[in-house]
Amino acid sequence: MGTHLAAGLAALFVLAACFGCTSKPASTADNKAAGRFKAAMVTDAGGIDDRSFNASAWEGLKRARAELGVTARYVESKEQSDYKTNLSALADQGNDVVFAIGYLMEDALKEVAPRYPKTKFVIVDGSAPKLDNCQSVKFREEEGAFLVGFIGASVSKTGTLGFIGGMEGPLIRKFECGFRAGAMSARPDSRVIVKYVGSWTDVPKGKELARAAVQQKADVLFHAAGKAGLGVLDAAAEATGTVFGIGVDRDQDEEHPGRVLTSMLKDVNGAVFRAVNDIKDGKWKPGERVLGIKDGGLSLSPMRYTKELVPSGVFGRLDTAKKMIADGLIKVPANPADLEAFRPPKL
Question: What is the domain range of residue 92?
C-alpha cells in the first residue's frame, strides 16, 4: 500500500510540474482520448531552456505532436536525484514512450525500465539496459566536432582556438578530440586551449573560462557545455576584436548573429521524432542506434551570418573531409589515445 501511495504521489508531482510545460498544453479530455499515443521526456539538469540539447529533444516531441497527432509533455530535472522519480512518474501516467535525455540517466533507467515492461524507454546519449522495452540513441560527436574544428582553424587569425566542455567524461572528450583533430587538419600549427566548466548549468563559469581563453589569444571558442555554453557564446560576442563562438547540438547562430561562426548540429530533434514514429508504425527495435555524418546525424548550421567570412577553398576541402569520413577513409579520434595517434589527412 505504501509503495502504491508513493508512486501515486510521484506521478501527481510530475503532472503538476509538467502542467503548462508544453507550448500547447493537453487538456484532460485530450490525455484520456481512446487510443491516443502519449510521449514524454525527462530533461537533464540543464533544463528545457538550455537552447541546446534538451531544447532540441523537446523540438522533436513537438514535431511528433504536430505531425503524428500524439500528446507530448516534459518534466524538468533540477538535480540528478530527480531522474528516477521523474522517469517512474511519467511511466505511471501511462505514456507509451518516455525519453531520458542525457547519459547521466543511465543508472536511473536501469532501475526504472524493468518495472514498466509495457512502456518504451529511449535514452539519448546514454546506454540502455538490454531489455525489449529499451533503446539508446548515440552519436559520433567527434565527426561533427571535426567539421567545426576545421572551419574554426581556417577562420582563426591567431591560430589559437578554445574548447569549453561541460562535465568532463568520455562523451565530451569526443567533442574535444574531434575538434582538435579538425583544427590540426585545417592548420597543422594551430593549438587548442581546453577547459571544463564542471557543470551543465553554470553560465557565469562558462563565460569566465571563455574570457580566460580569449586572454590567451583564442579567437574561436567551441563549447559542448549545455546551458553553461551560453556564457561561452556571450564571452565571444562581448570580446574586443574579432572573436567567434561555435554553437552545439542545435543551430545557435541566432544567439549572437555574426559572432557565432557556425554550430555543430546534432540531430537529437530528428532522433526523437523518428523513435516516436517507429513505435507508432510498429517498427520498434530495442538496442542501440549510433548516428554519424553518413547517417545525417551530424552536420553544420547554414551559417547565414558568417559564410562569406570563410576563406576561399575551405568549403571544398571540408566537403572532401565529410565524404572521407562517411566512407570510412578518415577515422576521427574520439579519445585522447586516438588523438595522439591521429595524422591529419591531405585535403
Answer: 36-139+268-291
